Amino acid sequence: MKQIVTTCTALLLASAAAADMPEILDVTAEKTGMSWRVDVTLRHPDTGWDHYADGWEVRDARGNRLGYRELHHPHVEEQPFTRALTNLDLPDGTAEIFIRAHCSVDGWTGEAVRVEVQP
Fold it and tell me: What is the pTM of this model?
């Protein structure tokens, strides 16, 4: 049985507006069995292998990394785009997760996007 838990709508992050940082537009967390699936929609002005959004991470409230989704290639012609991280184990009692995106040139987005999750 699948349970859709939380969807975050587009968030405007001041840090994402600076430089060419990936912008997190949407996050959906879904519990499937004992694990979670997190879908993240990003927008980034990918130019090719020299400059592209190359990943995003899931952290807990204490800053511990719970998962990482590597983006294996540029998405020059596909903007925005959504990718999933599946089989993510969240520690018991987790009520929120935080998503940050990474750019191959500019590094990590500033402030993370907070997403509430419920079992």
Answer: 0.80
